[in-house]
Design brief:
Elements (H helix, E strand, L loop, with lengths): L12 E6 L5 H5 L2 H8 L3 E6 H4 L8 E2 L9 E2 L1 H12 L7 E11 L2 H8 L3 E5 L8 H7 L2 E4 L9 H12 L35 E2 L2 E2 L2 H4 L3 H20 L2
Parallel strand pairs: 1-2, 1-6, 5-6, 5-7
Antiparallel strand pairs: 3-4, 8-9
Helix pairs in contact: 5-7
The structure holds S-adenosylmethionine (SAM).
């Protein structure tokens, strides 16, 4: 349990379903991700093409009703999930990545960090047959109101936001507790940080941070956080 009271598991399993598992090689090699893996988190990859019921490795098809582009077939996604989970049953959260989904935020990242296992379904082409959303996914998640070429980068963004909350991922566990949008800051952006030198080209570090007065520093930081929050709400 972390100091804010949330119960985050170091044994979270993240299963990524994709046509491009090699995209994740770089991600999986990053220090904080390796730390989380060493601490018990599992990151697995499933290539839709390995289990497609179609001949010749086909995974997509033309849209009914006509129109541009191809869609990822529902039977292909279903076959990938069945091959991965068989009789065990799919995880409680099967997340379809799509521009139109629930927008990822800190609260959702915390929610997912408390799950034992999540499956991430990366789309491609014009998207995924709607029956995946209707019958196979439990959630549809977007990383923002813009369109990427595929779900892989979205899956990495989501996995990163979740993994840094898990025990062992960060060098300093406290770093993930009092961060922008966290409950510790009442959902507000984090206060500004300054480091050495104290004076650079006439740009000064605020005097309070050099004072050594921890109570004043704390008060200043919380005030900065609150005023940024008010500023962002006022647009
Ligand atoms: C080219 S996009 C499909 C866009 C779709 N035609 C539309 O207009 O909404 C292909 C895949 O990228 C992923 N994707 C694109 N943008 C995304 C976003 N903002 N958040 C999450 N996933 C995204 C989804 O998995 C999607 O199926």
């Amino acid at each position: 349990m972390d100091p804010s009271g949330a119960c985050w598991s170091s044994s979270l399993k993240i299963d990524v379903f994709t046509l491009f598992p090699e995209w994740f090689d770089w991600f999986a090699g990053q220090r904080h991700v390796r730390n989380a893996l060493d601490a018990g988190t599992e990151l697995r990859f499933f290539n839709y093409r390995d289990t497609t019921p179609m001949g010749g490795g086909q995974v997509d098809d033309a849209p009914y009703g006509g129109g541009a582009g191809m869609g990822l077939r529902v039977d292909v996604v279903d076959a990938a999930l069945s091959a991965a989970y068989g009789d065990i049953g799919t995880p409680g959260r099967v997340l379809l990545l799509a521009p139109s989904g629930r927008q990822l935020d800190d609260a959702l990242a915390s929610e997912l960090a408390a799950e034992p296992q999540v499956a991430l379904l990366c789309g491609r082409y014009e998207g995924v047959d709607e029956r995946v959303r209707e019958h196979l996914a439990t959630d549809t998640i977007s990383i923002g109101p813009y369109v990427l070429s595929g779900g892989e980068l979205a899956a990495m963004v989501l996995a990163d936001a979740v993994l840094r909350k898990l025990p062992g991922a960060l060098g300093h566990a406290e770093s993930a507790i009092e961060e922008s949008f966290s409950p510790a800051l009442g959902g507000a952006p984090e206060y500004p940080h300054y480091t050495r030198p104290a004076s650079y080209r006439g740009w000064e570090v605020p005097e309070v941070l050099l004072s050594g007065d921890h109570a004043r520093v704390r008060e200043w930081r919380l005030e900065q956080s609150r005023s940024q929050h008010a500023g962002s709400r006022d647009g």
